[in-house]
Specification:
The complex is a heterodimer of chains A (79) and B (348).
Chain A lengths: L1 H6 L4 E5 L2 H6 L4 E4 L14 H19 L7 E2 L5
Parallel strand pairs in A: 1-2, 2-3
Chain B lengths: L1 E7 L16 E2 L6 H9 L4 E8 L1 H6 L1 H12 L6 E4 L6 H18 L3 E5 L4 H6 L4 E4 L7 H17 L6 H4 L18 H13 L29 E6 L3 E3 L15 E4 L11 E3 L7 H5 L7 H10 L4 E2 L2 E4 L7 H17 L4 E5 L2
Parallel strand pairs in B: 1-3, 1-4, 4-5, 5-6, 7-11, 7-12, 7-13
Antiparallel strand pairs in B: 2-3, 8-10, 9-12
Helix pairs in contact in B: 1-6
The chains are: A alpha/beta (79), B alpha/beta (348).
């Protein structure tokens, strides 16, 4: 899906757990998620810590959309 | 010759998705499909042990998992290593690939597995392992183990190994020189090929260049604070009654749902129907899969111009590349019509 949307000219940040898989299928902007069953959260964390985690990763994904990339690039997040 | 077999928690009879965090278990003997494999490879090979490990554990705690597996394998004598078959199970395939690659590097023995062509493990690991072309699901167990076993026996007996296409595994990207196959020299072969081409008959090049299509990165957004961003997801998060009846696996459609009046995706109003992982955590907080709350927060902060009024979703387990590409094209068309500038795509 990411590939076809990007092909149409819309930049896509893929947020996923298995980054190497995203790379092999041709994603260009990537942010790693926490896990498969809860990509952007963690039931073990406090509500505050989970919010920090989610906004940090989504924030990194948004910044990636405004960043020029030449090749598949993984964008780090603070939390 | 001795062999060891790696399988996941499901085929290792530990349990399903709820046991996917299982740490490696080392059996003194064989369980599950290892017995079928052993029956097929004897008497040339004896499969001595089954290693079982959860798919989440091997893919998310790779270093720890491999350390434990190495500690076990260091004490064993084996000349061949098997993993799977993994069918179309994505994490299982990647898990088999991780273990095969590590075993190959450390012990330099042939590593053999099997996956369906749609398994993401194929693309990633076909250059390091013999990955046989397998069926889509576990009903193909016997059919998929058969060529793995036959190939291993050839290795054990020291027989000549044929090119990938003839043996039935995915090409590893290795070019072997075969001087005068069938006694026909290159000049004759190239003319034969040319004549076939001129006559419109099928012919096969001897230098196959695998097509791996890359999409050049789209231009970045000039001003994030003025951009409309859409959420797209393969997490299977839908309204609780799943109004479009999207399939829980091998999805053949996608849905779009109105979030224009929502600041988050409340529990009980949305849930995930994805059959590829334990849904409890995402059903409790659907924003863990489709982060409407975080996007709304950034919209209020002015970091982005607008969160698009709908999110798009399908289920990404067992879904073929052909359908995924179709969904992507259809969704892209909608996004262009709605002047959406960029996409955050969450997957599991």
């Amino acid at each position: 899906m990411a590939k076809e949307i990007e092909r149409s000219g819309i930049p896509v940040t893929v947020m996923c757990n298995l980054i190497d898989v995203a790379k092999t299928v041709g994603a260009n902007r990537m942010v790693q998620t926490v896990s498969v069953p809860y990509p952007l959260g963690d039931p073990e964390l406090s509500k505050e810590a989970e919010w920090q985690l989610r906004t940090s990763r989504v924030g990194a994904a948004l910044d990636a959309l405004a960043t020029k990339v030449e090749e598949p690039t993984v964008f780090p997040s603070k939390f | 010759m001795k062999a060891i077999h790696y399988i996941n928690q499901f085929f290792g009879q530990i349990g399903g998705e709820d046991k996917a965090d299982q740490t490696p278990i080392f059996h003194d003997g064989l369980i599950g499909c290892s017995m079928m494999l052993n029956a097929m490879v004897k008497p040339d090979i004896e499969v001595t042990n089954t290693i079982v490990c959860g798919d989440n554990y091997i893919t998310n705690h790779t270093e720890e998992a491999l350390k434990e597996i190495f500690a076990f394998l260091d004490t064993k004598e084996f000349g061949i290593f098997f993993a799977g078959p993994a069918f179309m199970a994505g994490r299982y395939g990647v898990g088999c690939g991780i273990v095969c690659k590590a075993v190959k590097e450390r012990y330099n023995v042939p590593v053999i597995t099997s996956m369906n062509e749609e398994n993401p493990g194929v693309e990633e690991y076909k250059s390091v392992a013999y990955i046989f072309k397998g069926g889509r699901k576990a009903t193909f167990m016997k059919a998929d183990i058969t060529p793995m076993a036959a190939f291993a026996k050839k290795i054990a007996k020291g027989e000549e190994l044929l090119p990938a296409a003839q043996e039935g595994y995915f090409p590893r990207g290795i070019r072997a020189e075969i001087p005068e196959p069938n006694g026909i020299m290159a000049a004759d072969r190239v003319i034969d090929m040319l004549l076939k081409k001129l006559h419109g008959e099928p012919y096969q090049t001897e230098l196959i260049i695998p097509a791996m299509e890359k999409i050049p990165p789209a231009e970045p957004l000039k001003d994030l604070s003025k951009a409309t961003i859409a959420l797209v997801s393969s997490s299977g998060v839908v309204p609780v009654d799943n109004p479009d009846r999207i399939q829980s696996a091998s999805a053949q459609k996608w849905g779009k749902y109105d979030i224009s009046k929502l600041d988050n995706l409340p529990e009980g109003v949305f849930k995930t129907i994805h059959a590829g992982f334990d849904p409890a955590a995402m059903c409790a907080v659907p924003d863990r899969g489709v982060p409407v709350d975080a996007m709304r927060y950034f919209e209020k902060q002015g970091k982005i111009g607008k969160l698009y009024d709908y999110f798009y979703v399908t289920v990404g387990t067992g879904t073929t590349q052909a359908f995924a590409a179709k969904f992507g094209k259809e969704i892209a068309q909608e996004l262009h019509a709605a002047n959406v500038d960029a996409v955050i795509l969450t997957s599991t």
